[in-house]
Amino acid sequence: MPYATARQDPPGVRPAALSPLEHDARITATRTQKIVLGMLGALLALAVAAAAFGWTGGLLALLALITALYLADLAFCAWLVTGTMWRDRAHRPPVPLLELPRWPTFTVLCPMYRETAVLPQLIDAMEALDYPKESLQVLLLLEEDDTESVTAIRGMRLPSTFEVVVVPESRPKTKPKACNHGLLLARGEYVVIFDAEDVPEPDQLKKAAVAFATSPAKVACLQAPLNFYNPRQNVLTRLFTAEYSLWFDLMLRGLQRMDGPIPLGGTSNHFRTEVLRGLGGWDPYNVTEDADLGIRLYRQGFRTGMLDSTTYEEANPEIRNWIRQRSRWIKGYLQTLLVHTRGGWVSDRHFPTFLLVVGGKAIVNYINPLMWALTITYFVFRGTIGDEIEALFPAPVFYAAVVTLLFGNLLFVYTFLLGSARRGNHDLIKYGLLAPFYWLLMSVAALKALGQLVFKPHYWEKTEHGLHLGKGGAA
């Protein structure tokens, strides 16, 4: 598989070759990784068994390690968020959008599967894009077995900029596979993905074209922040909105500020087509192909910038549907973690950043319930087993654990509040206090993700869209 380099190599940027094994999530874990994971599992089981017979050294070491990881994540997130907030404190007047002498051709990929509920909304949103029609190509990517959508679209009078592409039936049946098919047909100098329920701000393509024209060649991708057009539908959508506001408006901008790897969102990624093709497109076996591609871009010497334009989509308002969506995201982050920890870039200064952002974001969902259960058990049954639990926390570990329990949880709730405030959703701020219940839902989704990673690693969990309309479709 060929790999691209930037049109001109910036100083100090030399893309390194990656092997297909490192690139592909087709193999969930290599033999070496399975051995390492098996050894870690055996050590954990041994530590628990030993503790049952009175030797707590293993559990003590494990809890000390977990506490250290929590502290590292706490410090890292605080630095990212506060740094972004401090940088954005000063009021900056809006900058007039530049007019380019020639608007480059843009290809818009719209992958969809059983999306008839939101299809009219998608057509309207793409027609509303303020971009020269002669320089615009919109590809509607449909699956061959989705006869309902194919029939519905072929019965519509579409603008001349639209092309209907039926993706042949093949495995794996994933969104990145459909996008790779569309990439083969793309005529644009730049390519962007919009999901079926997306409503981007009309000037987003122009902003992206100007940003690419005025950025160094190594900036190969621009990520537009995502947010929701139904944030107040119920409590779940309010919390989801707070999370997205924190992630896209504060965390990812912080990663850009530190020149680190940025795991992309699933939509509104704008690419230099030449670079994207050189990278081989998306990994069709990774169910968060966006996050994986963001890391691959970084490893090849390219960078991702944050675009000053928002794409609005549907906040999932139904718990079971939300868990299906979130379990796929967590499974994909675990896939990405496995793919990029068998590659040999541990010497890179941002490898720890990758571990915290991608690995930490997924793995913390498994640790949180255990630590919560341990804390609750201590206070409820302190009279009977309190001494045994206290023995697991010598003074240095105890005080560090107290910091993470009190200040850590307060900080993460506070950042939820900041995300809403940053977007001007002041009426949503109070719902950030419910963040711990939201994290518990994440842990439920994480357990489902782990099972699927083992038994159905490439299965694309369907998410129903259009629920804000009172009807739905699957994507």
TrEMBL record:
KW Disulfide bond (keyword) present: no
Positions in coiled-coil regions: none
Bilayer-crossing regions: 35-53, 59-82, 363-385, 397-419, 431-450
Entry superkingdom: Bacteria
Entry membrane topology: Multi-pass membrane protein
GO cellular component, one term: membrane
GO molecular function list: glycosyltransferase activity
Database matches in Gene3D superfamilies: Spore Coat Polysaccharide Biosynthesis Protein SpsA, Chain A (3.90.550.10)
Classification via Pfam families: Glyco_tranf_2_3
Keywords: Glycosyltransferase, Membrane, Transferase, Transmembrane, Transmembrane helix
Matches recorded under InterPro entries: Glycosyltr_2/OpgH_subfam (IPR050321), Nucleotide-diphossugar_trans (IPR029044)
Alphabetical list of PANTHER family matching this protein: CELLULOSE SYNTHASE CATALYTIC SUBUNIT A [UDP-FORMING]
Name of the protein this chain belongs to: Cellulose synthase/poly-beta-1,6-N-acetylglucosamine synthase-like glycosyltransferase
Organism listed in the record: Catenuloplanes atrovinosus
Organism taxonomic ancestry: Bacteria, Bacillati, Actinomycetota, Actinomycetes, Micromonosporales
